[in-house]
C-alpha cells in the first residue's frame, strides 16, 4: 500500500505532518511518499500540479492532501493558480464522489453560532458530485457578446452540464451511504429553473427504484440553504451537484462551529481516494503552529476506512480524537472558557498519546 502525501500550502504542511505522525504510530504496513502541490509546486516547478506529483497520486492507493492557495497567487493566470491542483487531481483521478460529513462533537456544541439544541447530535453527510457541473462543463470562456442585453460588450460564460450516467453513479453512492445510516436521502437541485437540475431529479427518481428501502426527497437549493440553518438535524444524507455541494457543504460545516474538525474524502470508482480537511490553507495563521490538525487527522482515518481497508485503525484514530476533546485540549479555533489552548503539534501529540495508551491497555 502506498500513500501519496501532498501537504500543499499555508497550514497544509503543519497539519499534514501531524496526521502522518498519527499514521506512523499505528504501525501499519504502507509506504508514504511526499510531493509538492499548489503554490509550493508552482514556486518550485512553475506548475501547481507537476507531472511528477500527478503520477505519484495516480499510482498511490490513496492521497493525503493538506490545502492549497494563498492570496499572493491571486494575480496568476487561472491555469497556474494553486486551486487548479485540486481540480486537476479530481479530474485526472476521476474522483467524482465527495463525502463531506458535518458532525457536531458533543464537547464543541458551544462553538456553533446556532443554539445548542439545534445542533447537539448533528450528523449530516453531504455527498457532492465532484467532476461535472459548471466546474468542468465546456464550453466556457470570454468573448464579445453578439446577443443578450448588451450586444458588443465583453462577456464571460460557463456551462452547467450533467449526463445521466454521471448522475446515476453519484445517486448510487448516496443511496448506498444512506443504507448504512438512517436510510434517507435528500437530493438538492434547482429544477424549477435549470435543465441540468430537472435531469438530476429525474435520474434520482429512477435510481431510487433500485433502493426501495431508502426514502428519497427533493429540495430546491435555496430552500435547502434555509433549512440547513433552521432545522439542520432534519437532514441525514444530502446528495447534490458540484456547485451547490461546494456552497452547502461550507454552510453545513459552519453549523458545527468548527470547520477545523471536519474531514472529507473524494473517491473514484475503484475506491482510490483523496483525503483532505474541509477547510483551506488559512494563510493568515500559516507557520504559527496554531492550526487545528484534527480535520486532517480525521481525514487520515477516513482514508484508512475507505481506501486502505483498515477500519479498526480508523476507529482507533477517531476514538483517540474524542478522548483528546474530552480531556479539554483545544486549538484556538475551538477554544472556549475553561478548556486548555494548545498548538498544532501538541494536539497531534495528544492524539498519538491517546492511541498508544490504548494499545497498551488493549
Ligand atoms: C473545495 C474548494 C474548491 C472547490 C476550490 C479550492 C477549487 O472550495 O474543495 O470546496 O471549489 O471545490
Ligand atoms: Mn469549497
UniProtKB/TrEMBL annotation:
Look up and give the organism this protein is from. Answer: Variovorax guangxiensis
Is NAD tagged as a keyword? Answer: yes
Q: Binding positions for substrate? A: 90, 100, 128, 222
Gene3D superfamilies given for it?
A: Isopropylmalate Dehydrogenase
- Which SMART domains does its entry note? Iso_dh
Q: What Pfam families does the record tag this protein with? A: Iso_dh
Q: What residues form the membrane-spanning segments?
A: none
- Per the UniProt record, which EC number(s) apply here? 1.1.1.85
> For site (Important for catalysis), what residue positions does UniProt give?
135, 190
> What are the annotated GO cellular component locations?
cytosol
Q: In which pathway does it act?
A: Amino-acid biosynthesis; L-leucine biosynthesis; L-leucine from 3-methyl-2-oxobutanoate: step 3/4
- Which keywords fit this entry according to its UniProt record? Amino-acid biosynthesis, Branched-chain amino acid biosynthesis, Cytoplasm, Leucine biosynthesis, Magnesium, Manganese, Metal-binding, NAD, Oxidoreductase
Q: What is the recorded function of this protein according to its Swiss-Prot or TrEMBL entry?
A: Catalyzes the oxidation of 3-carboxy-2-hydroxy-4-methylpentanoate (3-isopropylmalate) to 3-carboxy-4-methyl-2-oxopentanoate. The product decarboxylates to 4-methyl-2 oxopentanoate.
- Matching HAMAP family: LeuB_type1 (MF_01033)
Q: Where in the cell is it found?
A: Cytoplasm
Q: How is the cofactor bound?
A: Binds 1 Mg(2+) or Mn(2+) ion per subunit.
Gene Ontology molecular functions:
3-isopropylmalate dehydrogenase activity; magnesium ion binding; NAD binding
* Oligomeric and partner information: Homodimer.
Share an example GO biological-process annotation for this protein: L-leucine biosynthetic process
- Tell me if Chloroplast is a UniProt keyword of this record: no
- Protein family per UniProt: Belongs to the isocitrate and isopropylmalate dehydrogenases family. LeuB type 1 subfamily.
- Name assigned to this protein: 3-isopropylmalate dehydrogenase
- What does it catalyze? (2R,3S)-3-isopropylmalate + NAD(+) = 4-methyl-2-oxopentanoate + CO2 + NADH
Q: What is its main location?
A: cytoplasm
Amino acid at each position: 500500500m502506498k500513500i501519496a502525501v501532498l501537504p500543499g500550502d499555508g497550514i497544509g504542511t503543519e497539519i499534514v505532518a501531524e496526521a502522518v505522525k498519527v499514521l506512523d504510530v499505528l504501525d501499519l504496513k504502507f509506504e508514504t511518499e511526499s510531493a509538492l502541490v499548489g503554490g509550493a509546486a508552482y514556486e518550485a516547478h512553475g506548475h501547481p500540479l507537476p507531472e511528477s506529483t500527478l503520477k505519484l497520486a495516480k499510482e498511490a492507493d490513496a492521497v493525503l492532501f493538506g490545502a492549497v492557495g494563498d492570496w499572493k497567487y491571486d494575480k496568476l493566470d487561472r491555469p497556474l493558480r494553486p486551486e487548479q491542483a485540486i481540480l486537476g487531481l479530481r479530474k485526472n483521478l476521476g474522483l467524482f464522489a465527495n463525502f463531506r460529513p458535518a458532525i457536531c462533537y458533543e464537547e464543541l456544541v458551544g462553538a456553533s453560532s446556532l443554539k445548542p439544541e439545534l445542533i447537539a447530535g448533528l450528523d449530516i453527510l453531504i455527498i457532492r458530485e465532484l467532476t461535472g457541473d459548471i466546474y468542468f462543463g465546456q464550453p466556457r470562456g470570454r468573448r464579445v457578446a453578439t446577443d443578450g442585453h448588451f450586444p458588443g460588450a465583453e462577456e464571460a460564460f460557463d456551462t452547467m452540464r450533467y449526463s445521466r450516467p454521471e448522475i446515476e453513479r453519484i445517486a448510487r453512492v448516496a443511496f448506498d451511504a444512506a443504507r448504512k445510516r438512517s436510510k434517507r436521502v435528500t437530493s438538492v437541485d434547482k429544477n424549477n429553473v435549470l435543465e441540468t437540475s430537472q435531469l438530476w431529479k429525474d435520474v434520482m427518481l429512477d435510481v431510487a427504484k433500485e433502493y426501495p428501502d431508502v426514502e428519497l426527497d427533493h429540495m430546491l437549493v435555496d430552500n435547502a440553504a434555509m433549512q440547513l440553518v433552521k432545522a439542520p438535524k432534519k437532514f441525514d444524507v444530502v446528495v447534490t451537484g458540484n456547485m451547490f455541494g461546494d456552497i452547502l457543504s461550507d454552510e453545513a460545516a459552519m453549523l458545527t462551529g468548527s470547520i477545523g474538525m471536519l474531514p472529507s474524502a473524494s473517491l473514484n470508482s475503484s475506491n482510490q481516494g483523496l483525503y483532505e480537511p474541509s477547510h483551506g490553507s488559512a494563510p493568515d495563521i500559516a507557520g504559527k503552529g496554531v492550526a487545528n490538525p484534527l480535520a486532517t487527522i480525521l481525514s487520515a482515518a477516513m482514508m484508512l476506512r475507505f481506501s486502505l481497508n483498515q477500519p479498526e485503525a480508523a476507529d482507533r484514530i477517531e476514538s483517540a480524537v474524542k478522548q483528546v476533546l474530552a480531556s479539554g485540549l483545544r486549538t484556538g479555533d475551538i477554544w472556549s472558557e475553561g478548556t486548555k489552548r494548545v498548538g498544532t503539534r501538541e494536539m497531534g501529540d495528544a492524539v498519538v498519546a491517546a492511541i498508544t495508551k490504548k494499545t497498551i491497555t488493549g
